[in-house]
Every structure is written in C-alpha cells, then in structure tokens.
Amino acid sequence: MKKVILLTFLSLSSIFAQSEPVNSEHPVYSFLRRASVAGYIPYYDGAILPKSKTEIKKNLSELLNVKNSLPVSLSEELSFYEEMFLSQRDNKEFNFEDYTTSAEPVHLFEYSGENYFVTLDPVLNLTAHGVGDDSYSDKTAFYLRYGGYVRFIYKNWLSAYIIAWNGNAYGSREVNAIDKIVVQKFTFRKTGLNHFDGSEGGIFIEHDIFSGSISRNRTEWGENFYNKDKISGVSQFFDKISFEIKTELFTYNYLHGWLVTPQFITPGDSISGDYKNRAEKYTAQNRISVNLSKRLNISVWQSVVYANRGVDLAYLNPFLFWESAQRSLEDLDNSFIGLDVRYKPVNGIELTGSMIFDDINFEFLQPGKFQKFNNRFSFMGGLLYIPEFAGRLTAGLTYYFVRPYTFSHPGKSENLAYTNNSFPLGIDIKPNSEMLNLHLDYQFTPRLRLSMDIKHIRHGENIYDNSGNLLQNHGGSFFISTNQFSSEDAWFLAGEFQNTTTVEFLLFYTPGANTLIKAGYVFNKSNFNAPVPENYFYTSINLLYF
Predict the structure, then answer these.
(1) Per mean pLDDT, which range of 89-93, 420-424, 510-514 is the poorest?
(2) DSSP-assigned beta bridge partners for residue 299
(3) What does the longest C-alpha to C-alpha distance in the chain come to?
(4) Any residues with CB less than 8 A from the CB of 66 and at least 6 apart, and which?
(5) pTM > 0.70
(6) Which of 70, 60, 75, 65 is nearest to 39 (CA)?
(7) Closest listed residue to residue 37, CA positions, set 321, 380, 388, 489
(8) Beta partners for residue 112, in sequence order
(9) How far is CA 318 from CA 93, 210, 356, 446, in A?
C-alpha cells in the first residue's frame, strides 16, 4: 500500500515537471551533491549547472524511494526540498507570510490555462558591504535591485521566463565595487553612474533524453563542486544556445556562447563624433560524460574561443573535433581539450580530477623541457568527504595548478584569451599560480548552513615599472601572451612572487522557497598591494533572485 501511495504521488508530481532551469546558486544543488557522495543517487552528475526542475524532481524522487535508509540530516533536508519541488499549495490566495517563509512554491499572481501555467512575481535583492581596512575613507555601501519575474510553462516540455531589474548603489563606490554583480555592470563601471540594470531569461525545451535552450543566465561547468574550472560564477552572464542529450550510459552537452570584449573608441569628426566599437568574440564548448559504473565517471571536454569575425559554422557544428577544425581554418583561434574523472571509492568519499590542455605538446612533458613556455595546461584535484560520524559536515579539499601563459593567447588585447569582458571564464586565478583550498560546510538544519572557505594562492606575477609598463613577461596574466619580454623557459612561479591567504565565513539561511539570506565575513592577507580590502563583511536578502 505504501508503494502504491508513493507511486501515485510521484506520478502526480510529474504533471508539474518543468524544463525551466533552477538558478545555479540554489541550495538544492549542495543537498543533491552530498546525497550523491553519500551513495544514495549514484548517477547524479553535478558538473554542469543549472539543471531543470524536471531533473531535480527526478533526483528527489529517487531519494524518496530510499528515504528510510537516509541518515537523519539528509532525510530532514529531503522533506524540505520535497515540499519545495514536489508539492503544490491547496490554498492559492496570496499571503505575504507564506510568500516569504513557506517551503512550498507561492506566487504573487498565477494562472492555469489548458496545458499552460503563468506566474508573475517581484524580484528583490538588498546587499550591504562594510570594510575594516583603514585605507578606505568611506567604509560602508549597499545596493538595491528590484524588478519582475515572469514564467510561462506549457505542458511538461516547454518553458520560458524573463527577469528584468534595476539597481541603485549607495555609499562608497569603491566598497560597492567589491561586489562582482555591481562591478561588472557597464553603467557603474564605465559611466560612473550609481544605477545599473540587468536581465536574464530564455526559452527551454525538454523531452525524453533531449533538452535545449536559448538563454542568458548563470551557467557553470566543472567537475569540482566548489571550484568550476571550465565556466565558473566569476564572469558576467553571456548569451548562448545549448542542448543536452542524457541517457543512462552517457550525457552529451553543447554550448555556443556570445562573449564580450571591452569597447574601443575610434575618433571621429566634429559632426559624426567618435565611434564606439568592440570585437566580436565567441566560445563553443562540448562535453561527453560516460558512467563506467555507479562509482566511476569519465568525461572529455573541448572548447574554442574565437573572435574578430562572425559566427563560424564549424563551431556551430556540435559533432566535430574543433582542434583540427581550427587548424583547417588557418589556426586563427584558441582551442582547449580537457579530461575529467569523478570516482567514489566508498560511500562518503568522492575524488575528482581535471586537466585542461591549452597547447598540447607531448615533447615538452618530459624532464628538461617541462618548463618551456609552450607547455600550457592546468590541473585540479579534489576531495569531498562526508564523515560517517558527522553526517551534517562536508569537507572539501582542492589543489589547483596552472602553468604560465595558460588561458592567454597571442593576438590583439584579450580577444582570444579565455575571458569574458575582462573577467576569466574559469577560475579567477591568474596563470602561473597554484591554489590550495579547504572548504567546510555544516548543515545545522535544512534551512541553515554555515561554511568556511580557506584559500592559499601562490602566483608569479609579471614585472612592471612604476608606470605600469611591462618589463619582464613570466606568463602571469590572462591578457598578455608570449612576446618580446618572454623567455623560452617559463619557470613556474617566476617573476614577482605573490602570496595570498583568504578566509571566508558564510552563512546561508533559506526561510522559504522564495527567499534566501546570506551573510559573510572575508579576511585577506597578501605580501603585495592587493586590489581588495584586508577584511570586509557582507549581507544580502534575496526574494526570488537566487
């Protein structure tokens, strides 16, 4: 009888399945990854975010089948997310308290037609920063974002949404610029205004093993849960087309993105004025991931960055080896190949390894030649551990190594660098660096999580004079590739040695399905004049914007 009730419940919940993605910063992803590491959803693949509501509901349904076997901490969280994703309110009348605290989905306005569903909600974000660094004359700042969120869902295979908002910054511009959301906005960064805006959205389809979209939203690619090395949350949103083919054996992902380069101004005359321009820039990426067993997953990734021309059909072709294609196109572009491995030797332990080859020169992968500047790659090794004696604790340890000149490319400015509008596409750590990262999460309750993140970074910076002119190039920049200031031998950590330790404490509180509160404190210690304060705190309240 119990199985019948459960199957009935799951079949009813599938009626509300949706292809709409769930924001990549949503706390449900932390829960699903931990449940996967613990061995309860062995085929869960969290390398690419966001995921659709349909897929999240499927994973939650798998966990419901084994709920009696779950430890108390995971069982409590499952109940919380079951209410959030697999239930519908009986009372549709709007209530402000339910809107902010109910785990079940609540909307300001909703309408159900024949086979379609429409919702309308406000979005709101209030974020405050404060610094304890005496070099800042004004030590406090905050900003407010406000707008609207409209969803449209048709049956269980098509959805669309649009979010549009305005923002206003108050207090110190220097302190507000600590926040990546603010500093990446053109009107704040370039025009000096204290207001800015943003938009995201797209159209999404999902049927059987296929899903696809045209969208602008936060996308993250990378096997490591805390450090996404292919596409991280560092750079600004970019427009893209993408699709996925997902089977029990393998998953194939493709993405073509329209990136941004900084504008340049061509002087005009007194009548026409100056001309604003920017170079066209794109990235194409794909990944095939294979489940060799419940414990072992291997994936191959390839990417290309190209610029200074229109969209190239070779890179719109998702089933092509782009390293060879770009050579047939006269070698104008910057291509990458990567290999990822995810392995769970026992339940509670997950090991990940990732390699990215910028230039593949096997002759330099040997003693006596390893230091050559042609040898460009990055490596990341990770460990996730959930102790059996402390099921609410998750420990993550990551080592990241990136050779000099990796992710840069000869050419004008940053057009072929692995960047988007001057921010790295991957991890925000410069070439010629290494990082050791310890991350601890403790899930006090399903709604409350405390994190501690410690990063120690060593970097070999290029040598500049007092005017900022390059004197020695040691491959320490995304934007400067090999040139007349380079030596053929690019020794790791050569140049100006920079040492940075960052400690961050972060509190996540999820009052309900529509709200998220974050608070954090960051301490930085460097042996050089770093462009960030030595210590600062931040708090944010988010309504339907996470």
Answers:
(1) 89-93
(2) 289, 340
(3) 83
(4) 40
(5) yes
(6) 70
(7) 388
(8) 117
(9) 47, 14, 19, 40
Residue 63 belongs to a domain: yes
Cβ contact 454:506 at 8 Å: no
Contacts of 396 (CB under 8 A, 6+ apart): 225, 226, 382, 383, 384, 385, 437, 438, 439, 440, 441
* Confidence at residue 92, expressed as pLDDT on a 0 to 100 scale: 66
Q: Is 377 among the domain residues?
A: no
Give tens-digit pLDDT for 373-428: 889 999 999 999 999 999 999 999 999 999 999 999 987 679 999 999 999 999 99
Amino acid at 252: Y
Q: Given a cut of 90, is residue 16 above it in pLDDT?
A: no
Range of the domain at 46: 1-88
Cα–Cα nearest to 149, from 131, 172, 122: 122
531 backbone φψ class: left, alpha, beta (φ>0; ψ -120 to 50):
alpha
What would the two tokens of residue 181 be?
A: 């959301």
- What is the pLDDT confidence band of residue 95, given thresholds at 50, 70 and 90? confident
The residues, ordered by sequence, that sit 6+ positions from 191 with a Cβ below 8 Å of its Cβ are none
> What's the sign of the alpha-carbon dihedral 105, 110, 111, 117?
negative
Residue 32 placed within a domain: yes
Q: Name the token pair of 530.
A: 């770093």
Instruction: Give the list of residues 6+ apart from residue 331 with CB closer than 8 angstroms, or none.
Output: none
Give residues with Cβ within 8 angstroms of 122, minimum separation 6: 108, 146, 147, 148, 149, 543, 544
Domain count, the chain: 1
The alpha carbon of 240 is separated from its chain's Cα centroid by a whole number of angstroms, namely: 15
DSSP structure class, residue 211? E
Asked whether the beta carbons of 81 and 321 are under 8 A apart, the reply is: no
Whether residue 236 contacts residue 423, with contact meaning beta carbons closer than 8 Å, is answered with yes
Across 235-239, 392-396, 541-545, the highest mean pLDDT is recorded for: 392-396
